[in-house]
Design a protein that fits this description.
Blueprint (H helix, E strand, L loop, with lengths): L4 E3 L2 E3 L6 E5 L6 E6 L3 H18 L4 H17 L1 H12 L3 H21 L6 E4 L5 E9 L2 E5 L7 H12 L3 E5 L6 H12 L7 E3 L4 H10 L5 E5 L2 H13 L3 E5 L4 E5 L5 H13 L9 E7 L3 H12 L20 H17 L2 E4 L18 E4 L6 H4 L6 E7 L2 H9 L3 E2 L1 E5 L3 H10 L4 E4 L15 E2 L12 H5 E9 L14
Parallel strand pairs: 7-8, 7-10, 8-9, 10-11, 12-13, 12-18, 13-16, 15-16, 18-19
Antiparallel strand pairs: 1-2, 3-4, 5-6, 6-21, 14-15, 17-20
Helix pairs in contact: 1-7, 2-4, 3-4, 4-5, 9-10
Length: 493
């Protein structure tokens, strides 16, 4: 199957006949051919989006919301089909794929509800016979650049608020996972979303992504990906005076205090660390544990890790699927050597699974290090795979310090039964998301998603905060006095 771009309500071939294969990471099977589009394709899509946006902005927001309700209904109707496609192209186990599709459904309904709000505010004027208010206005054409690890959820975080706010968009999905974007194009089409509101152009970041960031008619870039690439997007966007929203890497930690429920903590760590084979920006890659319970927690984790089933995510019994490709395997494995050279002790895993039935896919054994110092590279750098480091601390204060002493600030977690520590932790943990007695994953769509420091640049996906990315504030003054009134001059008391 050869995929085609979706532009102005139609499927269109790329301007050049160049394609790359989409491979199932579980077995190496070719699933599709995705086009490697060009700057010309981007320009065609932007022209369509720009023309459509003038009409779309004048559609009442509740009517725009009706399209999202229909998109959500279609996603719900096709949920299992979408989940199957997602697992095949990305590798995550089927229950996680179903959860990701559900996240998109939830976002459709949530943002559709905003079509009857999109609240501004009214405020008293300082002058008589004058009315003052602020409203949200659409920005225009927005550019969405999304990663392969959540190929539908993250796209809905960005596209649905853009739609309801009156914008049109151009979406560049990852070339590793374009099939979910193709499925969404069909849903947009079936929902009769007006031509040009949703546009999808496949291709590389260096070609299509760069063209989007540089295009003068794209006013907003919303990017999720690596911190290294995000920095380049921010630089180019700043040069072109674009609004840029960045959601990037993480080095997330679960803190386990001496009074924690260890059974619950182990469950949370396993799910956070090895769900999606560790390929989440919110994945737990550090366990910061109080010295009094380190050995017991460590032994419990070893026992549980050894029971994890690994394999093709379509198998309902599998808990850990493959990683995305061989390049990821090589990166993950390189960190095993780094950790050992730095003096960390490898407790379990640390190897590529090359024997049958894993030899045709990209499988890495769930891995656990201990005796990890906070400043080791494996405790500082994002590995993006099923690798966890145990770091011992003496007390609560040291745990907070170790958690915060990384360049990222996405998600953090603490297990404790001490309410005083709970409130200090939620105040002092320098991350955009904090979990109490739960792992580092599990964000819900009605709260802001994003982080501090190297994780982001202050904007947020999801929740009402997402509307701030895709709207501009407009202040409006209505003077019905019939005379010139000068603010700050004619209002002397």
């Amino acid at each position: 199957m050869k995929l085609a771009n979706y532009v102005n309500g139609k499927w269109q071939e790329s301007s050049v006949a160049e394609y790359t294969a989409v491979l199932n990471p579980a077995n190496g099977e070719e699933l599709a051919q995705v086009p490697l589009s060009t700057e010309r394709d981007v320009d065609i899509a932007v022209k369509a989006a720009k023309a459509a946006q003038k009409k779309w902005a004048k559609v009442p927001a509740p009517k725009r919301a009706d399209y999202l309700f229909e998109i959500g209904r279609l996603m719900k109707q096709k949920k299992e089909q979408l989940a199957q496609v997602l697992t095949k192209e990305m590798g995550k186990v089927i229950e996680e794929a179903r959860g990701e599709v559900q996240e998109g459904i939830d976002m459709a309904y949530y943002m559709a509800g905003e079509g009857r709000r999109l609240f501004g505010e009214t405020t008293p004027s300082e002058l008589a016979d004058k009315f003052a208010m602020s409203v949200r206005s659409p920005i225009g054409v927005v550019g969405l650049i999304t990663p392969w690890n959540f190929p539908v959820a993250i796209a809905t975080w960005k596209s649905f608020p853009a739609i309801v706010a009156g914008n049109t968009f151009l979406w560049k999905p990852a070339t590793e996972t374009p099939m979910m974007a193709n499925e969404m194009a069909q849903i947009f089409h079936e929902a009769k979303l007006p031509d040009g509101v949703a546009n999808i152009v496949f291709g590389s970041g260096s070609e299509v992504g760069t063209a989007m960031v540089e295009h003068r008619d794209i006013s907003v870039i919303s990017f999720t990906g690596s911190t290294e690439t995000g920095r380049k997007v921010a630089e180019a966007g700043g040069r072109n005076l674009k609004k840029v929203s960045l959601e990037m890497g993480g080095k997330n930690a679960v803190i386990v205090m001496e009074d924690a429920n260890l059974e619950l903590a182990v469950e949370g760590i396993l799910w956070s660390a090895f769900g999606t084979a560790g390929q989440r920006c919110t994945a737990c890659s550090r366990v910061i544990v109080h010295k009094d319970v380190k050995e017991e927690l460590q032994n419990r984790l070893i026992d549980k890790i050894k029971t994890l089933t690994i394999g093709d995510g379509l198998d309902e019994s599998v808990k850990v699927g493959p990683v995305i490709n061989q390049k990821a395997i090589e990166k993950i494995h390189s960190y095993i050597g780094i950790g050992q050279e730095e003096g960390a002790t490898l407790l379990v895993g640390g190897n590529i699974l090359t024997y049958a039935p894993y030899n045709k896919g990209n499988y890495y054994a769930p891995t656990l290090f201990t005796d990890v110092a906070p400043d080791m590279r494996i405790a500082q750098e994002e590995i993006f795979g099923p690798v966890v480091s145990i770091i011992e601390v003496a007390d609560f204060e040291e745990a907070i310090e170790v958690n915060n002493n990384v360049i990222y600030g996405l998600s953090s977690s603490i297990y404790t039964t001490d309410v005083n520590r709970v409130f200090k932790a939620q105040r002092d943990l320098d991350t955009g998301i904090v979990y109490i007695n739960a792992g580092t994953t599990g964000a819900e769509i009605h709260l802001p998603f994003g982080g501090t420091k190297g994780t982001g640049n202050g904007h947020r996906d999801s929740g009402v905060a997402a509307l701030d990315v895709f709207t501009e504030w407009k202040s409006i003054y209505v003077d019905y006095s019939g005379k010139l009134q000068r603010a700050q001059i004619d209002n002397e008391i």
